[in-house]
Amino acid sequence: MPHWFTVLSSVGVGFGIASALVVAADLLSGRIQRMWIMNLVWPMTALWSGPIGAWMYFRYGRSDATMAANHANEVRRAPPIERQPFFVLVAKATTHCGSGCTLGDIIGEYVFAALPFTLFGHRLFGAWVDDFIAAFLLGIAFQYFTIKPMRGGSPGEAIKDALKADVLSLSAWQVGMYGWMACVTFAIFGRELRPTSIVFWFVMQGGMLAGFVASYPVNWLLLKTGVKEAM
Question: What pLDDT is attached to residue 154?
């Protein structure tokens, strides 16, 4: 591995961690989100997208401190959220879906490191199985904790709605990520990268971006048709 690429990887991952910490610190300062799951979504988004994700949070996702405090203490009903452009609402829905995938992929990689197996002669394909299972379960959980407070109803109904809203977008995200990782592994490096390498996580940041691009049009359609709720 060229030294310059290892250095670049360290910088890229460092920017992601720093951006996630900045967003998390701002949230913890009292600017909690109306929907608590977004307190996890924004730092997870900044972790892979770096300063771009942090900028999106401060531009489109940051809560007013007074409004957030009133909402948290249930003193009064918070005022309506200012209407945002549709492309921003789609991006929020996509990052919401992608945060479950991101967390699932991180967990899946370390589960695979502890219990590795090969599929079709490649460790990478085995890791993808673990990643997909963890990402799917966490992605549906993220959607459940969005739908249940917004729509009410029974837990069973909320799970069904979460599956309906996120199966396609989750799958699209994972396909985009897998496509990117396959190109990097087989076409660029010609070998599999291990999760103990900083280069692996830098490449995974690119995989998350590819997942976002693949899942964005799916989320656009789901929001347009009312299958998925706008964030």
Answer: 77
